[in-house]
Amino acid sequence: MELTWHGHSTWYVTVGDTSLLIDPFFDNPFTALDPSDVETPDYILLTHGHADHIADAGEFDGATVVGTPEVVGYVEAEMGVDETLGMNIGGTVELGDAFVSMVRADHTNGLGTSYEYDAGVPGGYVVSDTKPTQVSDSDSTTFYHAGDTGLMTDMREIFAPYLEPDAAALPVGDHYTMGPWQAAIATDWLDVDHVFPMHYDTFPAIEIDIRDFEREVKAVGSDADVHVLEADESFTLE
To answer: What is the superkingdom listed in this entry's lineage (predicted)?
Structure first.
């Protein structure tokens, strides 16, 4: 599985022959890329309806946009997206070579510049090359994109034992989401081998010293490797 971070919460994930773009928002200070510079993915996954997560969802002709029915209905009506797939918390869908589960996130939601539209519930995604079951599968490769969220016990009680992520991308910028210390606890609860900070330093309100996250992960006793990626940098998850 190939993971590429394009700044903020934007990730390009390749599973076998299937490509997925999560929360496309290229107007961020980390990347110099425009949507036109990025290969059109097979699927676009939207965690929730805030503008810094869906801004470029309509820029990839031919991609199928996945999200809650409320969010995909909005991008159809307002952003000219033709192909959509609605799903919801707890559901798993097979998208080419990937199995994608939508999981809970603790956050707010809304659509439009003044959030005049209801966007349903926010979520995160667990992307795996095998279908999740109650039977542990040590051969699977699984990536958890937390979306915008605070710390929640689902990470420890459900995601870790049953979805078994090997790696997690967690928001660490504080103010609107978890900050470094809560994200470090999430890292420990998820029992992942690799963790990637995201959703920080994009706006003044979420500017942090990213070394605080590294220190907090160490302090909580997690064995996870912390990967602070540069914009557009890739990591191969095996």
So the answer is: Archaea
